[in-house]
Amino acid sequence: GDSSAVQDQLKSVRQVQATQYAFAAILEDGSVVTWGQSDSGADSSAVQDQLKSVRQVQATSEAFAAILEDGSVVTWGNPDRGADSSAVQDQLKSVRQ
User: Fold this and answer.
1) Which of these, 75, 78, 66, lies nearest to 31 by C-alpha position?
2) Distance CA 34, CA 47 (A)
3) How far apart are alpha carbons 51 and 32 in whole angstroms?
4) Using CA atoms, how far apart are residues 34 and 75, in angstroms rounded to an integer?
5) 59: pLDDT strictly greater than 80
6) Range 50-62 average pLDDT
7) The Cα angle at residue 89 between residues 85 and 94, in degrees rounded to 5
8) Strand partners, 13
9) Phi, psi (degrees; rounded to nearest 5) at 9
10) What distance in Å separates the CA atoms of residue 97 and residue 87, rounded to the nearest whole number?
11) Which of 3, 35, 37, 55 falls between 20 and 30 A from 14, CA-CA?
12) Are 56 and 97 contacting, i.e. CB atoms less than 8 angstroms apart?
């Protein structure tokens, strides 16, 4: 993935996870920066305001799931590859790795 568009944001990176064609970096402040192919998880704009205090990110082939410090989970990417967590969102509380 070409990270040139977000290169200036990639400072103090704590962790990087990848789908097949996208990357997600957790920064030390708990925010997340994404890049790569938009339909594989690089477009996190719909959930960007929720991606605060991120503890960990997990990935499938085309979707990401972020576990927040409060134990909630935020998902994004291809809805057919796991990004649509709406059916189970009420169960995604107090999640730990």
Assistant:
1) 66
2) 11
3) 6
4) 13
5) yes
6) 95
7) 120
8) 27
9) -90, -15
10) 20
11) 37
12) yes
- The neighbouring-strand residues paired with 75 are 65
pLDDT tens digits, one per residue of 2-47:
889 999 999 999 999 999 999 999 999 999 999 999 989 999 999 9
Which amino acid is it at 77?
G
Of 66, 65, 73, whose CA–CA distance to 93 is shortest? 73
DSSP bridge pairs for 58: 65
Reading the block at residue 55, the tokens are: 């503890």
Q: What is the mean pLDDT of residues 83-88?
A: 85
φ/ψ of residue 7, rounded to 5: -55, -40
User: How many residues are present in the chain?
Assistant: 97
